[in-house]
Amino acid sequence: MxxxxxxxxxxxxxxxxxxxxxxTGSGASVSVRELATRAGVSRSTVGNLLSGEQEAVFxxxxxxxxxxxxxxxxxxxxxxxxxxxxxxxxxLQAAA
Length: 96
Hints:
By secondary structure, this protein is α+β, with helices and mostly antiparallel strands. The protein is built from 6 helices and 3 strands, in the order E-H-H-H-E-H-H-E-H. The chain has a 3-stranded antiparallel beta sheet.
């Protein structure tokens, strides 16, 4: 089984995430639960990003969150310059 690299993306500003959740690309607001569902990530991931407990997510999750809000991924997240290596197919599927 080959080893894969998944880049981490750091949230630029948690207050920006909160602001964009109040007025998404469609003009509607979105709750933590709704954003998590739309993005296909856990509620705890969204909640932890908002609280500052979590500062980064894998690239696929960053894209999914940004898409669910209706903005480009680089509006909310920036590459950290680090990547993590995973060989577990289940871990890769969860990150996608």
